[in-house]
Design brief:
There is one protein chain. By secondary structure, this protein is an alpha/beta fold. The protein is built from 11 helices and 10 strands. It has helices spanning 76-84, 108-122, 141-151, 176-188, 193-212, 216-232, 237-248, 250-256, 260-266, 284-294, 334-347; strands at 31-38, 44-51, 58-64, 88-92, 129-139, 163-167, 271-276, 301-306, 316-318, 324-326. The strands form 2 sheets. It has an 8-stranded mixed beta sheet with strand order 1-2-4-3-5-6-7-8, with helices on both faces. Strands 9-10 form a two-stranded antiparallel ribbon. Strand 3 (58-64), helix 1 (76-84) and strand 4 form a beta-alpha-beta unit. The two termini are 42 Å apart. The model is unreliable at 1-26 (pLDDT under 50).
Length: 353
């Protein structure tokens, strides 16, 4: 989760009851409600609350997408599994996407405010779901926002979030993962080692000033230094300007400010942190150890690396031509779905009297 340069732990068996395949079950239809949720002034989020058949006041999982114009319903296979287990789900179109109003802006603070508005709405729906059993699952950007929601103090008399699943989520201290991931991607793109440090140092100064409220003249000077560093590394001036423009975009610069490590150290709820072996967006090599360190004080934290999946947890399949590639919906890898379903079922108390 960085400027996208254009471009431990083995999976342990989790204890749980065996899952009966959906094809072997006869289930009444799911109840689906279209919902409208107010967020910032002028922003109404359109979502879909799916309720499992035959369950009164079911536990619920708030589903958050990753970066980009994410709509609702992007995890249909996982939702089907959760609903079959008696767990409700709620997903929503990001602002300015689908039926949601407002202007799409992919900055972290904006996305977090919208997710908090949806969480507040869920806490009012005691008629349909159990507000004492709300979990949050998010991928990438959503995997940062989920823990942040869990450490926010809930309103008076509102129960806290009971479980958090973070998929391919950045972890670590403010700016560190961003810059180290940038260094890793630039090295993979062929930038020579002696050119990397000047580029990273210039980027650090620029983003510190840009996100820290430095004077406009200083920020402009730091931006020019970023362009010069890229040019010295062998990029054209046009390419250097393009890199500086990407860094200045709120969707990118807001990632630099993320201090996920501090949030994870404070989270009291159970956490499942899942990383992908084939992730080329968020560096599993960097993020997973940071998550392990930050969560070491949490008595119910599980950190897992899944093999043969990429950033969106699509499975690696063999195509008709014999090629190997990742295909499917986000969160469509069967082993990943099974892991998440079993873990959430246990934490949400499904099947307990």
């Amino acid at each position: 989760m960085m400027i996208d340069a254009r471009r431990l732990l083995p999976l342990a068996l989790l204890v749980g009851s065996p899952f009966v395949p959906l094809s072997a079950q006869t289930l009444p239809p799911t109840r689906t409600e279209a919902v409208k949720i107010a967020s910032d002034p002028g922003v109404t989020l359109a979502g879909e609350l799916q309720l499992p058949p035959g369950v009164k006041r079911a536990p619920v999982v708030l589903l958050l997408g990753g970066g980009g114009p994410s709509p609702h319903g992007i995890y249909p296979l996982l939702e089907k599994r959760l609903l079959a287990r008696g767990i409700a789900t709620l997903s929503f179109d990001k602002r300015g996407v689908g039926a949601s109003s407002g202007t799409f802006l992919d900055a972290m603070d904006v996305a977090q405010r919208d997710a908090a508005a949806v969480l507040a709405y869920l806490r009012t729906r005691g008629d349909a779901i159990d507000p004492a059993r709300i979990a949050v699952l998010g991928i990438s950007q959503g995997g940062v926002i989920g823990p942040a929601l869990a450490v926010d103090k809930p309103p008076v008399a509102a129960p806290p979030i009971v479980a958090v699943v973070m998929m391919a989520a950045p972890a670590g201290e403010r700016g560190v993962l961003f810059l180290e991931s940038m260094r890793e991607q630039l090295a993979l793109s062929g930038m020579k080692a002696e050119a990397l440090s000047p580029v990273i140092d210039a980027t650090r100064r620029y983003l510190d000033g840009l996100t820290g409220g430095a004077a406009a003249g200083l920020v402009a000077g730091d931006r020019a230094a970023v362009v010069d560093a890229f040019v010295a590394a062998g990029w054209t001036r046009m390419q250097g300007e393009g890199a500086a423009k990407t860094l200045s975009d709120p969707a990118t610069s807001s990632l630099y400010t993320v201090g996920a490590g501090d949030v994870l150290r404070r989270i009291a709820a159970p956490v499942l942190a899942v990383y992908a072996a084939g992730d080329h967006v968020v560096s599993t090599r960097l993020a997973m150890p940071a998550a392990l360190t930050a969560l070491e004080g949490n008595p119910d934290a599980t950190v897992v690396r899944m093999p043969k999946v990429e950033h969106a947890f699509k499975p690696l399949v063999t195509t008709e031509t014999g090629a190997r590639e990742y295909r499917g919906w986000p969160l469509s890898d069967p082993d990943t779905i099974d892991l998440v379903e079993r873990w959430l079922t246990a934490r949400l108390g499904v099947g307990k009297s």
